[in-house]
Amino acid sequence: MRAQLMMRFAIWMGVAAVAPAAALAQDNAAQCTVTEIRASNEKGGVDPKLERMKPKLSKPPFASYDTFKLLGEQAVDAQRGKASSVKLVNGSLTLLFKDKLVASGGKTRLRFGIDVDDKQGARTISTEAKFDSGDPFFIAGQPYDGGTYVLVLTCNAP
Amino acid sequence: MEHKLDDETLMRWLDGDLPRDEAREAERMVAASPELRMKADSLAQLREVMTAHYGAAADEADAKLEGLWGKIEAEVRSAPARAPSPPRRTWLEGVREWLETYRSHLITGGLAAAAGALLTLAVSGSREKVVYVREAPPVRTAVATAAEVESLEVMDGSAAVLQIPGDRDDEAATTVIWITPNSPDEGPI
Predict the structure, then answer these.
(1) Which residues contact B151 (CB under 8 A, 6 or more apart)?
(2) Count of C-beta atoms within a 10 Å radius of residue B5
(3) Which range is most confident: B68-82, B95-109, B145-159?
(4) To probe the interface with B, which of A87, A89, A107, A148 has the most B CB atoms within 10 Å?
(5) Cβ contacts (< 8 Å) between A118 and chain B: which residues?
(6) Which residue of B has its CA nearest to A126?
(7) Which pLDDT tens digits describe chain A residue by residue (158 residues)?
(8) Distance between CA B179 and CA B153 in Å, rounded?
(9) Which residues numbered 63-92 in B keep a CB inside 8 Å of some CB on A?
(10) Which of A155, B2, B110, B118 could link A32 by a cystine bridge, Cβ 3.0 to 4.6 Å?
(11) CB-based contacts of B55: which residues, under 8 Å, 6+ apart?
(12) ipTM for the predicted complex
């Protein structure tokens, strides 16, 4: 009986010790989705997998294209202060979750460092941006496979 | 001879209530006993006196009752004929009549109720009543804010930061970094 009580106490103590750490870890993490799209004018319409982005893709500067094809989509767990690299169809992306802010409206706002390298590993673009959790952030314009390359970064954090 | 005729039996014999056999026996005993005969005579006399007295009282009562009945009949005859039933009223007329009849009662009751209410208000008003109203928490409206590009460096090209307006009022504009490379060669953006 006493042994059971001791074991139960130990479990509760363990939970009490781990829970704050887990909460802290969650507070320092963001779940990002990297979406690669090829835009062109081939009268192909919008890839059904990109249906959720259709409203954005139908407006300038994307309104000049009629075809959007999904090249790939990857999920990235970004940890604050730690760089996360993602392989792209024509290079690589490095994300650095720098900060999490709470906007006056109560929406979580994230600050990210975004670096894009070519296939040879040469840096082509480096930017630092703040955006709301869940809002897509676009980087586009580079020619790709007869069309235009579009990179969409969407990050969520509690 | 032994005289065993008690007073009750003697009185019943005098009244003629005894059965024939017992009456004959009682008669024989009374005849044989001077004492019983004397008692029987006394009882008979008393009976006659009582009968006479009650008869006179009854006659007198009869006369009085007769007079009373005559008086009652005379009063009944002299009473006026039954009043005709009033015309049938509607319920509204009844209510109005009731109000008119009890108007003073109603006014008195109303004044008493008003006085009571005023007294209650005066008593309860003497104590300061504090009503706590919970202030509604401020509504936190999520303010949609477009992404901000804090720094941007493009190697071998130029860039422009564009905004795609949101579809709804509460939807932030979407930020697009549009790269224009110096060379048309394909590359990662």
Answers:
(1) A126, A127, A128
(2) 20
(3) B145-159
(4) A107
(5) 187-188
(6) B153
(7) 555 655 565 555 554 544 444 444 557 899 999 999 999 999 999 999 999 999 999 999 999 999 999 999 999 999 999 999 999 999 999 999 999 987 766 789 999 999 999 989 999 999 999 999 999 999 999 999 999 999 999 999 98
(8) 10
(9) none
(10) A155
(11) none
(12) 0.84
Q: pTM, whole model, 2 decimals?
A: 0.53
A40: exposed, middle or buried (Cβ count in 10 Å: 0-12, 13-18, 19+): middle
Tokens of A102: 């709470």
In order, the DSSP letters of B64-77 are HHHHHHHHHHHHHH
Residue type, A138: F
**Distance between CA atoms of residues B16 and B44, nearest Å:** 12
Element (H, E) at B13: helix B7-15
Interface test with B, best of A137, A150, A152 (most B CBs within 10 A): A137
